[in-house]
Specification:
The complex is a heterodimer.
Chain A lengths: L6 H16 L2 H22 L10 H43 L3 H4 L5 H31 L3 H28 L3 H16 L3 H5 L3 H13 L10 H25 L4
Chain B lengths: L30 E10 L2 E11 L2 E6 L6 H9 L6 E6 L8 H4 L2 E4 L11 H11 L5 H11 L15 H13 L5 E5 L7 H16 L3 E6 L2 H7 L2 E6 L2 E7 H10 L2 E7 L2 H10 L5 E4 L4 E5 L2 H15 L3 E6 L4 H10 L2
Parallel strand pairs in B: 3-7, 3-8, 5-6, 6-7
Antiparallel strand pairs in B: 1-2, 1-4, 8-9, 10-12, 10-13, 11-12
The chains are: A mainly alpha, B alpha/beta.
Chain lengths: ~260, ~325
């Protein structure tokens, strides 16, 4: 007997398949190395000396916190989080499309959005530990208090969620999604910093940086949004990207 | 099949009629393709194709690049026709999830989820089809295609033939009403081929609709009697395999003959009426004949009689491409 599979079940099956295909030793090692660099820089910056005679102890603490926040924001939210999310999310369904295995998911009596969500969840499952652990480690090694640790963790989680959804969509839209994704990260997300806080609203980095800024009280040029907006808007964008992925899957010509 | 007559052979004009059978009226179509065209930019992959197919095996015969896989993709809903209409069990598989659950596809491409073992791979298809006991059903179909269900090796390490059988098992696991098998015998050894053909015949006789593509005539001969011939994106012929075979045997053949002394040999062949025409190429004769068997019987005795050494006799147009060109040219 056959029948229509329930949506949670379809998501779980897609998740299982995509996860098995995504996890490769090469990817994990390469991306963990980037994470290790972020943690290492955190440790190095945390050890920096601020012993200047004209600075009060409060000013030294403030400088240490400023440096720590900027390091975590620049290395973590500009490089580590988006690149890790790109590698896994673009591959989650994009690889199946390019290598011809998508047919084994597509030609089943399931709803398209379940495929998009299953692939996204698989990408998140791999990306979260590779980003959150080094980000938290880096924040702790800066040794400037728990606010930075919490901000780094929340920012990383929100970043992985939204970037993964965007890159699942990208993987379904274009071939060589990694190249397009890197161009997006470096050009769009990178350049936005040059145009200040207003422009930051159109880059995910503006939201993740705002979470960190709000938590630590340190001003970041592109991080001026409230905590609610900085968490809420990326989640809405993630849902929209997944909805578009489902639409794309529906209209896709499968090889 | 609605278009169940073969095209007239070149030169036969309106006098040619398809063989008439005493078979009962055909059952309602399970697959219907109406005026379907598929274009990729400027390239027309399928051009104004129409046919219907009922239960049993129907072979889709055509050379590589003829449009068979594109047609199959449209039947499954994997691609949308540029114009025309495709229906499986009366519905559009591209829009209708339920009908997708009644289709089994073994695609031509070799790609599988390489890190899964065969049981996992087939079980996942069963689960996504909502099969009641997915693992048991996966084991059953794997046994059916003679693959060990408990082999822990990932399918990525499988041979071509084993991968082909994994695809077949996956196509069968939902007990589909319509089975679409794109070059399913590629990569199988002769014993496996025979086994698969027996399996296809069994499935066809059980009332399922099997569409099986091939570019090998002998495979089609063993699959069954109904054939759709696709060439250059067009339906070149449709009908009974044996009628198609007769038509192909009656067509003019060109054969290359290498001998030590070509001119007297060519003259002898023409004088004795063994061939319809001969041309002398640089190092061989090119012989035209409609009676291949007669030519085959005569060529060696003639050479022996003339004391000429026969070095090679080889058909130059015995490939499917030339057959399809002939069929298309006859339309």
């Amino acid at each position: 007997m056959t029948g229509i599979v329930s949506s949670p079940r379809a998501i779980a099956i897609t998740y299982r398949v995509v996860l098995r295909q995504l996890v490769s030793k090469g990817r994990l090692v390469a991306l963990s190395l980037i994470g290790a660099v972020v943690a290492l820089v955190g440790w190095a910056v945390g050890r920096a000396s601020y012993d200047e005679p004209w600075l009060s102890p409060e000013e030294v603490e403030r400088l240490r916190l400023d440096d720590a926040v900027n390091t975590v924001a620049n290395l973590g939210f500009t490089i580590l989080v988006p690149i890790v999310a790109l590698v896994f999310a673009a591959a989650s369904l994009g690889d199946t499309r390019e290598d011809g295995t998508l047919v084994y998911l597509w030609l089943r009596p399931t709803k398209r959005w379940t495929m998009a969500v299953g692939g996204w969840l698989a990408a998140i499952t791999v990306s979260l530990p590779i980003t959150v652990i080094p980000m938290v480690a880096s924040a702790m090694l800066h040794d400037v208090g728990s606010d930075l640790v919490v901000g780094a963790a929340i920012g990383s989680i929100v970043g992985v969620i939204v970037y993964s959804a965007l890159f699942v969509l990208l993987g379904l839209l274009v071939k060589n999604a990694i190249v397009w994704g890197l161009a997006y990260i470096l050009i769009w997300e990178g350049l936005v910093a040059a145009f200040g806080s207003a422009a930051a609203k159109v880059a995910m980095r503006g939201y993740t940086s705002s979470i960190l800024s709000e938590r630590t009280g340190v001003d970041i040029d592109i991080g001026t949004l409230s905590q609610t907006v900085a968490i809420g808007v990326p989640l809405v964008i993630a849902v929209a990207a997944l909805a578009l992925s489902a639409v794309r899957l529906d209209s896709l010509e499968v090889a | 099949m609605s278009e169940s007559s073969l095209p007239p052979p070149p030169g036969a004009g309106a006098a040619y009629t398809a063989p008439v059978s005493d078979a009962p009226p055909p059952p309602p179509p399970m697959v219907s393709v109406s005026n379907v065209t598929k274009a990729f930019g400027d390239v027309i992959a399928v051009s104004d194709v129409s046919f219907t197919v009922g239960p049993g095996i129907t072979a889709l015969l055509g050379p590589n690049g003829a449009g068979k896989s594109t047609l199959f993709r449209m039947l499954c809903g994997l691609a949308a026709p540029t114009s025309g209409q495709v229906r499986v069990l009366g519905r559009d598989a591209r829009r209708d999830a339920e009908v997708r659950g009644r289709i089994g596809l073994a695609p031509q491409q070799d790609a599988l989820f390489d890190r899964l073992d065969a049981l996992e791979f087939v079980s996942i298809a069963a689960e996504l089809h909502g099969v009641a006991e997915p693992e048991n059903e996966a084991r059953r179909v794997l046994e059916f295609v003679q693959l060990p269900a408990d082999d822990p090796k990932p399918v990525g390490s499988f041979s071509k033939g084993m991968r082909q059988r994994v695809k077949l098992a996956t196509a069968l696991v939902n007990d589909p009403s319509v089975l679409i098998l794109d070059e399913p015998l590629t990569g199988l050894d002769p014993v496996q081929r025979r086994r698969m053909i027996e399996l296809f015949v069994e499935l066809g006789e059980s009332g399922k609709c099997l569409l099986v593509s091939s570019h090998v005539l002998d495979e089609v001969a063993r699959l069954g009697s109904r054939v759709l011939v696709i060439a250059q994106g067009r339906l070149a012929a449709a009908g009974d395999y044996h009628a198609l075979r007769d038509l192909m045997d009656d067509r003019p053949h060109r054969i290359r003959v290498r001998v030590d002394d070509p001119r007297p040999f060519a003259a002898a062949l023409v004088e004795r009426g063994i061939v319809d025409g001969v041309s002398i190429a640089t190092d061989a004769l090119l012989v035209d004949t409609t009676d291949v068997d007669g030519f085959g019987r005569s060529v060696a005795p003639v050479a022996r009689e003339l004391g000429i050494r026969l070095r090679e006799v080889a058909p130059t147009d015995d490939d499917l491409e030339s057959v399809f060109r002939y069929l298309v040219g006859g339309r």
